[in-house]
Amino acid sequence: MVNNAGLDQGRDIYFTSMAHRLQKYLLQWRARKLCANLDDQIANGDKLLDLGAGDGYVGKQLMSELGADTTLLDINNNNRTDLPLIIYSGKELPFKDREFDSVLISYVLHHTVDPVALLKEAKRVTRNKIIILEDVYKSRFDLWIVTLSDHIMNVFNETKTYGFKREDDWRHIFKSLGLVLVDRKQIRTALDPVCHLRFTLRLHTQIQQEPTA
Ligand SMILES: C[S@@+](CC[C@H](N)C(=O)[O-])C[C@H]1O[C@@H](n2cnc3c(N)ncnc32)[C@H](O)[C@@H]1O
Fold this sequence. Notes:
The chain is an alpha/beta fold. It has one domain (4-209): 3-Layer(aba) Sandwich (Rossmann fold). It is 36% helix and 23% strand. Strands 3-2-1-4-5-7-6 form a seven-stranded mixed beta sheet, with helices on both faces. Helix 1 (5-36) packs across helix 2. The N and C termini lie far apart (69 Å). 27% of the residues are buried. The protein binds S-adenosylmethionine (SAM). S-adenosylmethionine binds at residues 51-54, 58, 74-76, 78, 90, 106-108, 111-112, 118, 154, 159.
């Protein structure tokens, strides 16, 4: 009888490493795409908090591509970059008031138990703006699609999903927190049925009118 254990093990290692490399390639490609959608919002030298940094590729890309001075913060350690990651409890942000020029909250709010509390903290630590990337839904069918897509995206990590909202619900929350929506952009990706929105919020604004959907 031939013992194939060594061969099987070699094949497993090969496929695991191929899958790992493919996943890394896709995540870095996504980070480059997101960065291209943020380049009008983040300037060279900006002190930026990447709140809920995940694998860290987006924060790292913003640093290398746009020159942001990025701090990665999360409640879990999924960091795949060489940038330091600060882990915290998910409650109070471990920073002083107005410590950052901007806070980026990229696809995090629907993963938080209390998004309003997180936004209050983001408001406290920023002196300029909060940039939010979030998936929204309009119909029950959209909600089903967005939930399915989120499960697929997070199949390999322990990130829990607590709930998606409609655009108007987010706008209502921003307003109730005294955050002014100064820019709203739909991020389009080929063949992606989910509606991804980018909201830019300021504490004090010169712009009187909120952009319409
Ligand atoms: C879908 S990932 C997004 C990661 C990254 N921002 C990106 O766009 O690639 C959501 C992240 O939010 C983090 N998260 C959930 N609740 C959080 C909280 N209260 N404070 C900070 N991060 C949180 C999760 O640990 C996870 O890393």
